[in-house]
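[job 0417] fold request received: Agmatine deiminase
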Amino acid sequence: MLTWPHKNTDWAENLARVEPVYVALAKHITAVQQLVIVAHSEPVKEHVIALLHAANVPLNCVHFVVTPTNDTWARDHGPLTCAAINNPNQLKVYDFTFNGWGNKFASNLDNQISRVLVNELSDTNNDYQAVDMVLEGGGIEINEHGVLLTTSECLLNKNRNPNLTPSDIATLLKQHLGATDFLWVKHGYLAGDDTDSHIDTLVRFAPNNTLVYVQCDDKTDEHYNALHAMEKQLQGFKTTDKTPYNLIALPWPKAVYGDEQTRLPATYANYLIINNTVLVPTYDDVSDKLALAQIQQAYPEHTIVGINCLPIIEQFGSLHCITMQLPRGFLTGAAQ
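[job 0417] inference complete; emitting structure tokens
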């Protein structure tokens, strides 16, 4: 799922640079699976169709939802979908509240997208549920063993759920997402990140009890102390079998700055897993090649593809942030 940028968003001034990234994503995604695109209006939809047609993207693999949008961060306003705990043949589609990362930005339109998406495209066998809890997809990772990985800075931040205790939050995540254990990352951040340290910018689960994480090796960088402390904590984490996780470090790209000399949150951890492929953000950096190699080590059976995301980080997010996966069974029959 992609929510397309448009002239009424903060992307207005660099649409000409950012839309080619979206088109490239659409081309890679439709090469291996279906794609849902959320368009702000019918004119935006027609504009997107023209862009995709010109790039030879197979439009029979693209499914549109037209609904007004504030912004484009599908990872955080999109639905969280999992197998129903009591019926593995049914999908549970959870619509958590999105409040613009603690009411930093307008989110009233984006908070309606999941409901519209489900009404228009979701298979009727799926069970949709709106949840009265603020939660963004970029704030959590959960593996096949039911272990949920997150940061304390984000998930326990009072700008999300001020009336919920940490115990309340854990109970809700167990109830809805089937989490059986938690790994709370207490250190790490990226300058320019508006999300209060989303885990998908710092540490990711990979197969075979592996954690892929950003490592800062520059002691003069402002991030060094926090990311070094995070690395030490990851080294102490244990799997459900009480053994250490396999750790794969991602390199640290050189600092990237925006027009106002604000540091931008460049991170290789913000990659997207699709069918048989991992799309990895790159930044025209000498470390790009090593990052791709490290992610190939984490996903040896996948094809690794780099996507230049310099235009994306100008709005303080990256590749994983602008996408949301919809598992097989989400779309109604013929659209699978």
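[job 0417] notes: The chain has a mean pLDDT of 96. The longest strand covers residues 87-97.
[job 0417] exit 0
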